[in-house]
Amino acid sequence: MKLPTVNFNIHRVYGGLSKLRWGDHSIWNKSHSPSAERCLHVSSKDYGGTIWEPDRRGGSEFHREDPNPMSNKEHLKRGAKMLIPETKKMITELKDYFSQDPPKCWYPQDGVVDKYFEFGSPESVDNWVTTCDSDWDQGYSTANVTISPSGTGIFSGNISTRIPKTGQVHIAGYANLRFVPPHRSFYRESTYMFAAYTHLALRIRGDGRTYMVNLHPHTMFDLNFMDLHSYVLHTRGGPYWQETLIPFSKFFIHHKGRMHDQQYPIELQEVRNFSITLMDQNEGPFSLEIDYVGCIKDENHNEEFAYEQYYVGRWMASN
Questions:
Q1: Which of 5, 30, 294, 313 has the greatest CB tally within 10 Å of its CB?
Q2: Residue 254 to residue 262: CA distance in whole angstroms
Q3: In this protein, which residues make up the domain named NADH:ubiquinone oxidoreductase intermediate-associated protein (predicted)?
């Protein structure tokens, strides 16, 4: 008696909660019909593979086919064209490294905001990406980012908590604004060094909603791909700007929205990216105007971490 195929898929649900879902029967070979012989699914690839597979999407089944797939020959041509400009970029990086000119993040001035994420020109919109639940067919919210006449960025859209009738999502309604992470030469990952700062500084003009400010850590293992260090951002409605300072010691860590039992501070010497999320479960339009997001140093701030750090034994389950 042959065992039926079980395809375990971790489906990402809004709010960070994940569940184990029974998937369709997997076929080992594309040429096999659904009634053909089945085997135990150990890989998402039809041709086999290993049990461990890195997944930046965290198990999401959403997949968008490439409308213009390239052949191996085209990939080689494209790589050859990139070789010269990427090599020049690496030479520039080496010159900057040996120029003995320390970056501003090493020795920041006390009380001075160093801007890292901001808008300005209309082309600066390309440095930001908006996502919402409708992008993954998991809701009906909308989001976009535009430039105001004064050169500030406006993150706006509409939040809808209506749930698609697919049976896969139990809660919906979120929008996210994320900065496009920079890359070094040959598309190597680059990180921000915020270790010398104490606060995250934002100059915003909101609509009275409560947003979430996220710092993306630099991770090396797929187990931590969905880790985020976050803190709430309360905005005031009205025409006035607000300058908000959030201590880095206040950021808490969670994985897909689930709080970690064992909290620990973010490694500020390797911050990968920055994003803002709205998921307050209130339907209707939203608008958040952003002038800049930066960092500031306060010599009077000595707090290392704001939350209790519990020790969890090795024999106890923790997340």
A1: 294
A2: 10
A3: 117-290
Q: Where are the domains of the chain?
A: 72-99, 108-297
| pLDDT for res 26 | 30
Contact in structure between 217 and 266 (CB atoms under 8 Å): yes
Topology (CATH) of 108-297: Jelly Rolls (2.60.120)
Query: Could you give the CA distance from residue 110 to residue 97 in angstroms, rounded to a whole number?
Result: 25
Please determine, for residue 177, whether its predicted confidence score (pLDDT) is greater than 70. yes
**Digit-coded pLDDT (tens) for 5-53:** 333 333 333 333 333 332 333 323 333 333 333 333 344 444 444 555 5
Q: In this structure, are residues 275 and 231 in contact, taking their beta carbons and an 8 Å threshold? A: no
Say what the pLDDT of residue 170 is: 87
Nearest Cα neighbor of 155 from 119, 180, 184 is 119
Which residues lie across from 294 on neighbouring strands?
115, 201
Q: Distance (Å, rounded) from C-alpha 211 to C-alpha 24?
A: 37
- Spatial neighbors of 298 by CB under 8 A, at least 6 apart, are 110, 111, 198, 199, 245
